[in-house]
Amino acid sequence: MKAVTVDGLRMRYGANDVLNDVTFQVDSGKVLALLGPNGAGKTTTIEILEGFRRRSAGRVSVLGVDPAHGDERWRARIGIVLQSWRDHAKWRVRELLTHQGSYYAGLAWDIDDLLAAVGLTEHADKQLRMLSGGQRRRLDVVIGLVGRPEMLFLDEPTAGFDPEARRDFHELIHGITGETTIMLTTHDLPEAEKLADRILILSEGRIVADGTAEELAGEDVVRWTLDGRRHERSTQDSTRFVFDLFKRYGDAVSGLEVRPASLEDTYLTLVENA
Ligand SMILES: Nc1ncnc2c1ncn2[C@@H]1O[C@H](COP(=O)(O)OP(=O)(O)OP(=O)(O)O)[C@@H](O)[C@H]1O
Questions:
Q1: How does this protein sit in the membrane (predicted)?
Q2: How far is residue 3 from each of residues 63, 87, 240, measured CA to CA in Å?
Q3: Global confidence as pTM
Q4: Residue 147 near ligand 1, beta carbon < 6 Å
Q5: Interface pTM (ipTM) of the complex?
Q6: Per-residue pLDDT of the chain (274 residues; tens, 9 = 90+)
Q7: Percent helix, strand and coil across the chain, each rounded to 5?
Q8: Residues 183 and 228 in one domain
Q9: Is the CB–ligand 1 distance for residue 262 below 6 Å?
């Protein structure tokens, strides 16, 4: 089952193509992370899928519906966390969540459980204007979740989170995976590695990589010196390789270096060469 299907998506502002032939799918219940430099087209892609922007061309389906024609019933199945949320400065945290939850009668998560999951319990009765930036952001995430959506879009959900809030958020996401399909954007590569079943890298409006974190991270690199000569080898299993190297050559080997496979290396190479 595919929760999202995108085929040949194109977005043009004036004469400027910001998305070119973007094609991908998201399996139901999985987490997809969309990575890419500033201006790559991540928010544009997500906003088209949310039904906020009209695409220029291509086919798009979210939960079996074209977002350009999504009705109220379709919208009720979708949770959205934008990069910035409109201000409701005078509302209190619990009041706003209870109000949002009332749109999803019988479906919504328990408000207190949600508040606890993002560490907002002690701030539940504060007005929004009294919250710090990171606390506001945690509330944004909870608002996206309150209706227990089948599909959740998160645009840079953890921007401004402290390490503890980030960890709580990761646990929250792990807790709802399987039940909810999630598509998120982030600039935090370790976060993408931790959360995503699949990662897409977008650069200048094109997909330049699509795979699991492991697939994209490539191979470990082992370097060593033997008989005065420097050697280098890429390998999936550097522990095994180094073990065999020492078994064979013993202490004739020197200057050993192992650089683990890294999503960051792949990301930077792809983005710089795009
Ligand atoms: N309404 C608009 N009119 C014209 N150009 C736009 C509009 N909205 C976005 N763009 C352009 O589209 C491109 C992609 O923007 P988008 O916000 O999707 O990037 P992003 O990958 O989400 O970036 P960031 O990481 O900074 O959030 C940018 O070059 C941006 O200037």
A1: Peripheral membrane protein
A2: 5, 31, 40
A3: 0.85
A4: no
A5: 0.95
A6: 899 999 999 999 999 999 999 999 999 999 999 999 999 999 999 999 998 889 999 999 999 999 999 888 898 899 888 876 556 677 888 888 887 777 776 667 788 888 888 888 999 999 988 988 888 888 888 888 888 889 999 999 888 888 988 888 898 888 888 889 999 999 999 999 999 999 999 999 999 999 999 999 888 999 999 999 999 999 989 999 999 999 999 999 999 999 988 899 889 988 887 6
A7: 40, 30, 30
A8: no
A9: no
For residue 20 and ligand 1, the question of a CB distance below 6 A is answered with no
Number of domains in the chain: 2
Same domain, residue pair 185 and 223: no
* CA-wise closest residue to 207 among 50, 14, 25, 12: 25
Q: Write out the residue range of the structural domain in which residue 201 sits.
A: 2-85+148-216
Whether residue 64 is found in the same domain as residue 174: yes
CATH number of the domain encompassing residue 60: 3.40.50.300
Q: Which of 216, 235, 250 is the last residue of a domain?
A: 216
Asked if residue 161 is part of any domain, the answer here is yes
- Give the position, in ligand 1's atom list, of the atom nearest the Cα of 156: 27
Same domain, 65 and 167: yes
Residue nearest to atom 29 of ligand 1 (CA): 39
- Beta-sheet pairing, 198-203 with 206-211: antiparallel
The verdict on 153 and 254 lying in the same domain is no
Q: How far is the CA of 13 from the centre of ligand 1 (A)?
A: 10
Q: Are residues 73 and 170 in the same domain?
A: yes
Question: Distance (Å, rounded) from C-alpha 232 to C-alpha 266?
Answer: 18
Which of ligand 1's atoms lies nearest the C-alpha of 14? Answer: 4
Q: Is the CB of 43 under 6 A from ligand 1?
A: yes
Q: Is residue 6 part of a domain?
A: yes
Please choose, from the candidates 169, 172, 145, the residue with its C-alpha nearest in 3D space to the C-alpha of residue 157: 169
Residue 94 lies in a domain: no
